[in-house]
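dumping this here before i forget
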Amino acid sequence: MPALTMASAQSSVPEEVSAPGVKANEYYIFTQELNADEAKLGVSVAVYTLTNIIVHKGDNVTIHFSNTADEVKDRHTFTMQAPYKMNHDLAGGENATFTFKADTVGGFTYYCTYDLPSMIGHLEVLP
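structure:
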């Protein structure tokens, strides 16, 4: 059996990092209400089902964002500040699909403007 070289070991490592989706860099994010007494805790207890996204600079990123709340009045957002400035605000039961180019390397927070500090996630754009 031939010896495993560093070059052959590296070639077996996947080149892209992605959460499950039909296509590369396609992500499905749902809202989830946790069963807790928000009044007693003093903070909201909603979360995103996907809290970490890792892509590479230059990737086109597609997000399928679904507000799974039963009531229309229970709004959630997918919000990011510059350089990926966006604010997708959905009523309960609504869905949105949006695409952006990951053109700035670094770590960026996405969050729901209605449910801080519990509803946050992180986008990491690698070189």
